[in-house]
Amino acid sequence: MVSRSVGASPVAAGGVEPGYPTARWAWYTVIVLLCAYIFSFIDRQILNLLVAPVRRDLAISDTQMSLLIGFSFAIFYSVLGLPFGRLADWVSRPRLIIAGMLTWSLMTGGCGLVSSYVPLFLLRMGVGIGEATLTPAAYSMISDSFPPAKRSVAFSVYTMATYVGGGFAFLFGGLLLRSFGTREAFQLPGLGAVRAWQTLFLILGASGIVFVLVLLTLRDPSRKGARVLEQGAGKGKIERLPLGVIWKYFRENCTTLASLIVGMALVALGAYGTSAWAITFLVRNHHLAASQAGIIFGGAQIVSGSLGMITAGKLVSWLMQRGYRDAYMRVALMSCVGWVVPGILYPLVANTTAVVVLLYIGTFFLCMPTCLIPAAILETVPNAMRGQATAVYLLIVNLIGLGLGPTAIALVTDRVFGYDAAVRYSLLIVPLAACLLAALLFFIGLRSYGASLGRLEVWLQENV
Fold it and tell me: CATH number, domain at 423?
């Protein structure tokens, strides 16, 4: 049994690196993965819009609601990312994503069939299990579809889903709630009386199952820089690196990886916490209807989130063309600094129009690290470790960000202030502390990032 390297040939004439798909097919892959990611964010974040009716029907507190929004989903989504990331390094990545999307769509639809707290909590765990397959495989596929100089914009487009998906959840959810009017329940064939919020889950679950047909059109790109073990008759099998080799490499780059991952986890804590409670803040403190608040905040997520991520990708490309190899880190640090002023002001001002404007500006900056940090991590690790690196990233970011973000704000509201309208102060305290600590960690990572890129070059030379 011998081995050969995939995609290690030199750049061809004309500046096009061989082994990559055509630009058209590469972007088709990104768009399909983007749509799947949008579905995943709609399914996980639709509960943020439904705080009032779910709390009422299940008779639960803000803290219990926050566990449905964050912890129930995040626990399995984060932990199972590790084995799924391992799988993404050597199995068919499109098939892995298809199996995951079928799972989470069925679980989302199931949320529309239950009417008590524990079953809903368990189904939210199931949504997390299915969604854990997507991002490790998608990041790996995108890395193998674009040469390094073109990856930043591709990653920016894919990770737009983190804001576009949440935005569509709030926007379309708000529009549907408005169209439902004052109706509290619907009579559905075979199901009987179903609450309005349950109907939303049923619609989303069915839509996700239909979209799986589109995922069947994806092709798995060849793994660039990975070694293939020859097994005779022209067949090969992607080499699986021992876990000891992977963890040794991670330890050698622990300063860079820890600052990137923990820094992003803190940004996610602020972002998920804001996303979970901003609509409730607009309802409680500015007396908007939930449907109106959902449309406003959904617009901020879609418009500012998309613009922020595309801007971040363009800035990275611009800096890289001028020789800044640490461009990802520079833009991430800048984004944290840019968020501080609007992030402090929007919970405090009394004018609703000013609040909306500040939410748009804050979202523009807060979204940027979401597309930059994963790409920065993948630039510092070999191809055969990308799925595992993504899984570790998702484990920490989602346990801290998604698992703790919504609950941290709820706990400050419930335990520190003790009255519902104090959610405005919780939205100031928790995200501000998280963002400032993240900026410090990104600054530390900026100082070690170049050394990690150097270690990668040495590792590749020694292991080709």
Answer: 1.20.1250.20
